Amino acid sequence: MPITTKTGDKGTTGIFTGERIVKFAPIIEANGTIDELSSFLGEAKHYLDEELKELLEKIQVELYSLMAEIASKGEYKKIGEEEIRHLEGLIKKFEGEVKLEGFVVPGATLGSAKLDVCRAVARRAERKVAKVVLEYGIGEDVLKYLNRLGDLLFIMARYVELKEGKINYVK
Question: Does the pTM exceed 0.90?
Answer without folding.
Answer: yes
